[in-house]
Each structure stands twice: as structure tokens, then as C-alpha cells.
Amino acid sequence: MPPVDERLPDDAFSALVDAEIEGRASEEQIAALFAEARRWRRALYDRLDEADDGVERAKRIKGPERAQVLRDFESIGDEVDAALDRLDIREGRELPEPDDPTAGAEPVEARLQASWSPSQVVVWFAGSEEALGDKAGLSKVLSEFGAPSDVWSDHDPVVLPDDRKAAALAAPIEDVIGWLLGHADDDRLGASARWLGQLGLFGVGLVARGSMVPLLRHRHRTEGTGTFAVRWHPVLVDERTVATFAKAAPATVFMANPRLDALSATRSALVAAVNAVCVQAASRIEAPAPPPRLTSATDLAEAYLGRLDGSSFRAGGSRSGARAVHGRVGTTRGGTSVAPCGDTARPARGRPCVAPAGARSRSRRRADADRQGDRVAPGPDTPGPTGGRPDAPNGSYPS
What is the DSSP letter of 137? Predict the structure, then answer.
């Protein structure tokens, strides 16, 4: 051990310890640390204790950021452990035996999980030692939790990481949104079901403050006619909150559709939740009957205002009528027709407000880039998916 007057100052020594943990230290700097090996080891154990304390604090967090904070502190602990291993090797010590991940591990209790697949909630029941393989048993579990009984349809079994299969049922989110919201904080449900419920509550908050717009979608076109429907989309959304939800999403959210990435799935589920809340509210309002025959843009506007509950309608009964309607509504790839209408956050009276075609095609390209790993989740300093402000309206979320 060097004389006291030759020891590095505490600040400089601490900086070297952090540099070695992060893999930035040079051989000369590591040699300086090794010259005070006992001090180095104490510093590493102090950091390991801080990481463990952080893990315990993170476990008490109730919000959606809990999982990400927990992973961060666990990652810090793993890095400090690795630094201790390197110090042991330099001192000629034997490395401790690696932990057996199965030794002493508590079994994960079987719970009702809810995975996301576009427009659908897929439920299944499983744990580390149990997986329900029959749909009758799954229906009984749903009944015990007060879920709607007549909305579920068959779905392919969910394949678990150990290749076991769990029976699954699926329902449109419009039919189960209320049930999910009511169980958002129910610890008896699996983490994925609670996550969807919490995301739904966030969507309800957007609706409550008016951060949504009804977009007119062209769902299908045939010769001389077209099928339209209104779909509600969130606007003025804080992208940092969306990114936090995506990072906190449990792996079980994607078990029914492993091709989804966290950010795309979060946006898709948020759009669906907002739409589900809005169409249910709109269905309870008496609206004027739409014109029986839609042959003009004015007829289309009236039908739009009378169909805010998301029900579809046909427009254009002749070639001339279809041209009148389609003259006001453009077409994007994949059959979705949209037309700009100025400030979509405040629809003009009597005029269908729909997303610009360019915005939707750009959104689709961004979603493809997300799936291919070419983009990262937007953070506080990263432009939102519209390429501008994180809260820029319209085109931010794929349907």
C-alpha cells in the first residue's frame, strides 16, 4: 500500500473505479487502482451495496416505470460484480461459483395474463409450474375475475418459453376495456393484464382532457362505392410517457404476438384503448340518422358526424357519386383513404376530419423501421414519431 501522501485523492480514485467498471480505464489507470487493491475492493462493495439498496427501493415503486428502474439497478449490480471478478483474477483468487438460476428460485405463481395483438386482448393462465391447457378452465378463471362471458373467441395456444402451451381466448378490446380498467391495480392478475389496464387508464386521461380526434378511415373500396368508418386517435401525447410504458411492458404482453416490438405495441394498444373508450361513449349518444344514400361530400360529412361510434357505412352509389366522395378523400397504400382538413385537433364544423395521407404513410414507414430495429424509442431529447415536437398531433400512432 503506498504512503498516505502518495494515495490518489478520493474524487480521482472514485472516478478511476467508475471508469474501470464501465470499461474505459487504461492499463496505467488499472495499475494505479491495483496499487491500492484493498481500497479498490471496498469501493466496489460500497457500489454493490448502493445497487442492492436501489433494487429494494425500486420494488416499492407502483407506477409503470417500476420494471425499468428495477432493471437499471440490477444491471448496475451486475457490472460491479464483474469488476469484482476482474479484481479477484488480478489478485489470483478463485472466482466464486456462478449462481444456479434455478437454485432457490421461488416458483412464479400462475396468474391470468393478457397479451396484446392488434385490436385484440389475448388472455391465458400460466406460471412456472402450471399452465391451463383447456379453454373451459380458462373461461372459469375469467368468470371468477368478473370478465364478460360472451365476447371471447378461440385463439391459438400461447407458447411459453419452456415450450409448454397455454390455452388462449381473444376478445376485441372494445368489449373488455372496462374490465381491464377495473383491474388495473389488481395484484391477483398477471403483470401483463395490469399493464394493459394502466395503459388504458392513461388513454382515459387523454380522452378526459380532449386529447383525441375522430379520423375517417376508408376501409374498403369497390367499383363505384367505398366503406368508411370513424376511428378515434390520441393527439398531443407526451412521447416520454409512451416510451416509459414501452420500457415497462412485461414480456408476457408479447407472448401472443412475438413479432411486435415494445414501442409499436404500446402505441397500437393506446390507440385501441382510446378508440374503445370513445366509441362506447359515442354509442350512448343519440345522433341524427345519416342520409340513406351518400353521393356527395356533404352527405359523407353528415354520415361521419352520425357514425362517431365507429360503425361503418357505405358511400357512393354511382360513378359520379363516388367521384364526388373520393374527390374529398384521398387513398393511401393498403386501402386506407384519408384527407387533410387543416387543424385536426379542432375539426371544422360539419366537415370530416381525417389524417393526412402523407402522415399515415410516414407513420407506417416509421413503424416498419421500429420493427427492424432501425430506430430507437424517443427520449426527452429525441423528436417524436412525427419528426417534430414529441406532442405533435396526428400521424403519430399506427392503427
Answer: H
- Quote the Cα angle for 285-290-291, to 5°: 165
Q: What is the mean pLDDT of residues 192-217?
A: 93
- C-alpha to C-alpha distance for 24 and 17, rounded to whole angstroms: 10
Three-state DSSP state, 171: strand
Strand 165-172: give its sheet, edge to edge: 111-117, 120-126, 165-172, 153-159
Q: Cα separation of 105 and 23, whole Å? A: 31
DSSP codes joined into one string, 225-254:
EEEEEEEEEE-S--HHHHHHHHHH--GGGG
DSSP-assigned letter for residue 91: T
Q: How far apart (Å, rounded) are the C-alpha atoms in residues 180 and 194?
A: 7
Rg (CA), the chain: 27
Average pLDDT of 34-53? Answer: 92
pTM over 0.85: no
CA separation for the pair 230, 219 (Å, rounded)? 10
Q: Which residues contact 202 (CB under 8 A, 6 or more apart)?
A: 241, 245, 270
Quick check: 332 and 360 in contact, CB under 8 A?
A: yes
